[in-house]
User: What shape does this take?
Amino acid sequence: MTPLDDRNWAAFTEEGPWTLHRDDIRWMPVAADLRAAAQAEVPGLTRAAKVPPGRRVVRVVGTLAGAVGPWMIAKKRRKYATPEASRADISLRLRRAAEQLGPTYIKLGQIISSGEGLFPPELVNEFKKCRDQVPAEPFAVVRTVVESDLGCRLEDLFSEFDPTPLAAASIAQVHAATLRTGEQVVVKVQRPTVSKFVRNDLRVMAWLAPFLVGRIPIASLANPPALVELFAETIVEELDFRMEAANMVDVAAMLHELGNHGYVVPRPHPSLVTRRVLVMQRVSGFNFDDVVGMQDAGIDTEEVVRTAMVALMEGAMVYGVFHGDLHGGNLFVLADGRTALLDFGIVGRLTGDRRLAFLRLMLGATTNDIKGQLAAMRDLGALPHDTDLDAVIRDLRLDEPRVDPTTMSGEELVAEVQRVVKALLGYGAKLPKELMLYVKNMVFIDGAMARLAPDLDLLGEIAKISLMFAERHGERLGRELGIDHNAVEISMDGVKTSLGVDTSTESLTYRELQARRELIQKRMRDHVGR
Assistant: This one.
């Protein structure tokens, strides 16, 4: 393999199996139309029907009742020694139920598995098993899908095709292969019936969601109908691999334009991409959790985390495009310390006014402008357009000095969370898709710090990144927002407040932050478990 000229417009590897010419990519012109059609389908899929949508409802309700019912009985009879044991049991039951119900519910479990910090650790750890323990389709089925979509026998295109998948997930599975022309590739193959199942299950979820509102605490907190809509917006785009391949190209172009040299993207094949089959360049490296292997190879793991933070923020703020599903299985760290991004089924896209609203949200965070942040969230769709922002500030007590949460009792912490949640629900708050993806990625990076950079000074890094943004992008972003970027004063007080520390704090390592969080979580668990 030789250096390729497609690196003058995209963040691809120095050497690759083929060169991508933007104007000659067969599947690229239809991607935008496919994406628009997928999103236009969501309202119909998530509209709550008056009657149950088919026999699938019986299966879903029965399976979930069979999982939750015995747990509720055992909890009522106080059969669990600790709250952790109770959560572990219900997590196991829900994971098994998801696997019984198939691809849609497994995919939901996979999303939960990357939500460390957003969901109970027992639930996250249990659903991590959904990432790589999903039963694979028989090779005969894989052959049929590949041959049907590519229009020829497997042997006509591939000299080798490993019948054992490298990984099997809810939507698809991936196989190592070699093209007859000698290039080593990975072939992603969609499960043949997944598209129909997902759409049927979304209709079932939409029918069930209203019945959960107010019935169980977690449903009241999460707003089930809104969650179904959010999940549908995310999953429908994963059902056509031409959109995923286009996402790969768009993210690679974004990284190159921003001069981010810490990430690379595998090249999708310029012609071997269809709705259900995606042939791409094969890359390999250290698993993202292999801290010892990376450090033994001389890789600066703190720089790996730093690169991830900058790439996510730059992509969203400057370009409006970012990988939307960061987790350990979607990242390889190469021997030279760069990170290869994998699996582009979910990509966040912020365009027009929504990107400007996101910019204002980030600007408000760095300048400690509370009302500006709320206005930006309203413009992103997190709050209704007629929301009284001053009332929100009063109700959430955002204009009052923050209390260090480590000084609060478990009862006080739980009461405070309930107060905030009740107030937000009263204002009709919800989490827009792009904001959810961004927050989920930040939660992943937060968790990655625990393994890769526990002694990184968070306050120092955030200050450095803020200054870097001001120097590199300040003029452009100021022009877009209609402000004088030289007049913007960065304030760390809001950052410190969001982390729950006093504004006089000078430094805070992740290890120290984690110790504070564990203390807070323990007090809340002890109070709830009494």
